[in-house]
Structure formats: structure tokens, C-alpha cells
Write a structure and sequence with these properties.
single chain; 14 helices; binds fe (iii) ion; binds manganese (II) ion
Length: 361
């Protein structure tokens, strides 16, 4: 079918068939190679919807007051050595982790996917990792922590080194010209998306999220806690981006979804859980007020199973109950909007106020 436009002395003929063929060629991978950012018509509606949710949640670190945190950091009496150590581990681990996630999006995933709406949401995802990295800089500067100490944490704390190595190994192998028509290479990409979305952001971020937000519940480090709440809300969207991307990649490439590959992914999650539990024991070497090591360890089993089920894989520790039910509420930021007088609330559009995926947690 053709549509003809007569404008003045000129005639333009638009061919609907050609446009439909272009739309049909939109794919997660191996789609139409084009330099045009042809978002419309949208094929992956979820990607555009998540993009809109994510930008409506925009926040900037400087909007969060750090006065109370600075006071508490300097006061030996209000905050214990263990609690201070949790904050150091949080800043140390996430300083490295946010960068690794952002880099993998920009240099691996966003490079390899072909549909423009997927590139759109991945661009926003990468930018949010920059915001998170910036928030850590702001915490370090506010508390007066030596930046070299932070670098040393991800060079010298073995449980941090091992967590980082676990994710960078599935990223490194994809940084070359990859023939994505080969099933083995499709699996490499699917594995990368699974490891980053479900194992790292979806599971290995939650040990520290739980601990920092436990402190926040006790009114310790309210500024840092608030930033972690915003980060957690962002991460829940990132997990969704990568979950949807993974599901569509599998849907379009069914040949890789074998029993063997599923077991390989479950084994990777088991490894991620193991590393996270060791890391939790480094963050919290002894129980502290309101923080029980066992609860955080069990929470990792619980959340990992939610991630596995989310992508159609069988759980590893079926039946484990959520030991930290309050963590889901922590993301529900709409309840205390008036906490802020600053710009943060202005970014909030009505549509973005109910994005907490309580069922995720
Ligand atoms: Fe992040
Ligand atoms: Mn993230």
C-alpha cells in the first residue's frame, strides 16, 4: 500500500510495505542494522514504559542533606565500629560495582542489541549507574573518607575482588566482534544479561542494601540511607530491564533454551549466592544492634529464588521465607514525599509514584 502526499508541485510516495518490513526486522539481536534511531513504531513497549518510569524517578545526590550523617560519623558514641564498617564496605563495594555495571551496558549490551527502544532504555540505565557512582563520591566527600581507601577496598578485600571477578569474566569475553548468529555466542550474551541483571544487581546488591537500610531504620546515617533507598528503587527497574531483555532474547532464539543451558544459569546463581554470603560475613563480622547475620544470609537465598523464578528457572532454596519483609516498604518512597523540600519531589510525576515492585522483594 502506498500513501501519496502532494505538496505544492512536489509528490511524495510513502510505501507502507517497506515500513512494515523495517518494523518486522526489529529484533533484540541480529535485527536491522541502521544508524537511524527509528523508535516508532515501538516493538518493545516495555522498554519505552520503563524508560519513562526511570526518568520520572530522577534524583541528584546533592539534593540529600548529609549534615546528620557527618555528625554521626564523627561521634564515637552514637555509631559503633561495626556500623561504620558497614558504611565503608557499602561505599567501597558500590564504587566499583556501579562502574562495572555501567561499563558493561555501554560497551557490551547496548552495542549488541539492535532495536532502538532497547538502546534508549539502556542509555538511561547507564546514566543511572553514573548517578549512583556520583552519589558515592558525594558520600565520600561529605564524610571525609580518603578516596585512596575506597580504591584499596576493591583491590584488597578478597570478597569484593571475587564478586567483581565473577561479573567481569562474563563481560570480557564479549568485547570483540561477535557473530551473534552462532548459538554459542547467543548464549554468551544471554549469560551476561542474566549475570548482571539477576545475579549481580538482583541478588549481590541486596546484602548491603539490607544492612545500610537496617541502619537507616534506626535513624543512623539518614542521608546515606535515603540515597540507598533511591538507588534500590532504581535497581528494581534495572532488574526489570534486564529481565525483559533476557526473556525476549530467549523468546526470539528458542534454540539456546536447553535443559543444559538452564542448569548452567542456575549454577551461576548458586555461585553468586555463595560469594554474596561470604561478602556479608565480611561486612558484618559480628551481629550488631538490630542486624543479625543469619537474616541477611537467608535473605540472599530468598531474593535469588525470586530472580530465578522471574526468568523461568527453578529455585535453588525453594520455600525460604523472607526474613526482611520491611525492605520492600523501604522502596515505597511516595509515603514520605514531604521528607523533601528540594528538587527530588519536583522530578516525581504522578505516574512514577507507584513503581515500587513490592512483589520483587
Ligand atoms: Fe546502580
Ligand atoms: Mn543498576
Amino acid at each position: 500500500m502506498q500513501k501519496i502526499f502532494q505538496v505544492g508541485s512536489k509528490t511524495f510516495v510513502l510505501d507502507q510495505k517497506k515500513a512494515e518490513a523495517a518494523f518486522a526486522a526489529k529484533k533484540v539481536i541480529n535485527g536491522r542494522q541502521t544508524m537511524c534511531f527509528n523508535l516508532l513504531p515501538l516493538k518493545y513497549q516495555w522498554a519505552y514504559d520503563l524508560y519513562r518510569t526511570m526518568k520520572a524517578n530522577h534524583w541528584e545526590p546533592e539534593d540529600i542533606p548529609m549534615g546528620k550523617d557527618i555528625e554521626q560519623w564523627r561521634d564515637e558514641k552514637t555509631v559503633s565500629e561495626v556500623e561504620r564498617w558497614i558504611i565503608r564496605m557499602g561505599i567501597g563495594y558500590f564504587s566499583a560495582a556501579e562502574g562495572i555495571v555501567g561499563d558493561n551496558i555501554q560497551h557490551v549490551v547496548r552495542e549488541l542489541v539492535t532495536a532502538p527502544e532497547l538502546k534508549l532504555v539502556l542509555g538511561r540505565h547507564a546514566h543511572e549507574e553514573n548517578i549512583h557512582a556520583d552519589s558515592l563520591l558525594y558520600m565520600i566527600a561529605s564524610l571525609g573518607i580518603n578516596p585512596h581507601e575506597c580504591e584499596a577496598m576493591f583491590e584488597d578485600v578478597p570478597t569484593i575482588v571475587r564478586k567483581n571477578e565473577f561479573v567481569t569474566r562474563v563481560s570480557r569475553s564479549l568485547r570483540r566482534d561477535l557473530d551473534l548468529t552462532q548459538p554459542e555466542n547467543k548464549k554468551l550474551l544471554a549469560k551476561n544479561i542474566f549475570v548482571f541483571g539477576q545475579c549481580m544487581e538482583g541478588t549481590q546488591f541486596y546484602g548491603l542494601f539490607g544492612m545500610v537500610l537496617s541502619l537507616y531504620r534506626q535513624n543512623k546515617f539518614p542521608g546515606i540511607g535515603q540515597m540507598f533507598r533511591y538507588t534500590l528503587r532504581d535497581e528494581s527497574n534495572h532488574i526489570e530491564v534486564f529481565r525483559n531483555l533476557f526473556m525476549d532474547l530467549i523468546e526470539e532464539n528458542r534454540e539456546i533454551w536447553t535443559a543444559e543451558f538452564k542448569e548452567e544459569l542456575r549454577a551461576l546463581m548458586a555461585e553468586a549466592i555463595q560469594l554474596e554470603k561470604e561478602f556479608i560475613r565480611d561486612c558484618l563480622p559480628v551481629n550488631a544492634v538490630g542486624l543479625a547475620i543469619d537474616e541477611f544470609v537467608t535473605y540472599i537465598d530468598y531474593i535469588a529464588d525470586r530472580r530465578l523464578e522471574g526468568v523461568g528457572l527453578a529455585p535453588l532454596a525453594a520455600g525460604v521465607k523472607n526474613p526482611l519483609p520491611w525492605l520492600a516498604e523501604m522502596m515505597d518512597i511516595k509515603k514520605e514525599q514531604n521528607f523533601f523540600e528540594g528538587r527530588v519531589t519536583e522530578y516525581q510525576k504522578a505516574s512514577s509514584l507507584n513503581v515500587a515492585h513490592d512483589d520483587d522483594l
